[in-house]
Specification:
42% helix; 303 residues; single chain; 11 strands; elongated; 2 domains; 10 helices; 7-stranded mixed beta sheet; Arc Repressor Mutant, subunit A; D-Maltodextrin-Binding Protein, domain 2; alpha/beta
């Protein structure tokens, strides 16, 4: 039994076709078939049912494939650990960012990150929190920038900063004349929210103590859509301070909330067993040193 044969086995289970599996392994179909036949002979069991249109593991084969998958993943991790030890910041990182953060936060820090780590290549993808966490668990993303807390023992969390939430209302609205807006007044003024799946929606409901809010007439698909809805006088909302610079100028008025501590905490998360753990710790340290305007560091007690 060799590691290469186990790679063939996993590839065939994933592809269900000898030709596609061989292509994925960069070998000829005959080489892959011979390797798998040798593996089955050494084990004394048939791992794949070849009588079907799509090659499928047998009942015993399913268990063998899953064990092989873990072995291949660990072997890959060993190779990556050795490679990353040379220079943990010379690599590409698949970074997920929640949509209500990326466009407003990254412009503040990317220039500093490039100066600090010129060999680090960030491949950015915007995703809602549930999908971002799922892709982290599946290895499709290396790390994520999102709102805390994240309660997952398989993830390491580096708190970065606290971002205040502001009341946003159309120009000329009565609440715009108040220095600090009570959340009760905001809730009664026609609160507009993002659609389900956005963590900012849940934070707005929690801040306004409206977890049971029903009968919403309109839900926005993005923070910019929400801003435009407020500008048109359709209601009021809560907006993170980094998104406060509005392209609609004076059409949207921002005011602090009377509610103390109305904010969200932002952090960088990655898998604890990731071979990029050293990379992510250095990346997080760089981000933590570059606080965006209007935000504050997360205290050790809060973290």
């Amino acid at each position: 039994m060799t590691l290469q044969e186990l790679r063939y086995l996993v590839a065939l289970a994933d592809c269900g076709h000898f030709g596609q599996a061989a292509e994925a392994c960069y070998v000829s179909q005959s080489t892959l078939s011979t390797g798998l036949r040798k593996l089955e002979d050494s084990l004394g069991v048939v791992v794949f049912d070849r009588s079907l249109k799509q090659v499928t593991p047998t009942s015993t084969g399913y268990e063998i494939v899953e064990s092989a998958r873990r072995i291949v993943e660990e072997a890959t991790r060993i190779q990556e650990l050795a490679s990353y030890a040379l220079d943990p910041m010379d690599r590409s990182v698949q970074l997920g960012v929640i949509p209500t953060l990326g466009a407003y936060y990254l412009p503040h820090v990317l220039a500093q990150v490039r100066l600090a780590h010129p060999k680090l290549r960030l491949l950015l993808r915007e995703e809602l929190t549930p999908l971002l966490l799922a892709h982290l668990a599946e290895g499709k993303l290396d790390a994520g920038l999102l709102a805390l807390p994240i309660d997952d023992p398989g993830l390491e969390v580096a708190p970065l900063f606290v971002e205040p939430l502001l009341a946003a209302m159309p120009a000329g609205h009565a609440l715009g004349a108040i220095d600090r807006v009570p959340v009760e007044a905001l809730a009664l003024a026609g609160l507009l929210l993002l659609e389900e799946g956005h963590c900012l929606r849940d934070q707005a409901l929690e801040t306004c103590q409206l977890q049971g809010l029903k009968n919403e007439e309109i839900r926005a698909t993005s923070l910019e859509t929400l801003r435009q809805m407020v500008a048109m006088g359709l209601g009021v909302t809560l907006m993170p301070i980094l998104a406060g610079v509005s392209p609609s100028g004076q059409q949207v008025v921002l005011r602090p909330l009377e509610q103390p501590g109305a904010s969200r905490s932002i952090g960088l998360v990655w898998r604890r067993r990731s071979p990029l753990a050293a990379t992510m710790r250095q990346f997080a340290a760089t981000l933590a040193c570059e606080l965006p305007p209007g935000t504050s560091a997360i205290s050790a007690d809060a973290a």
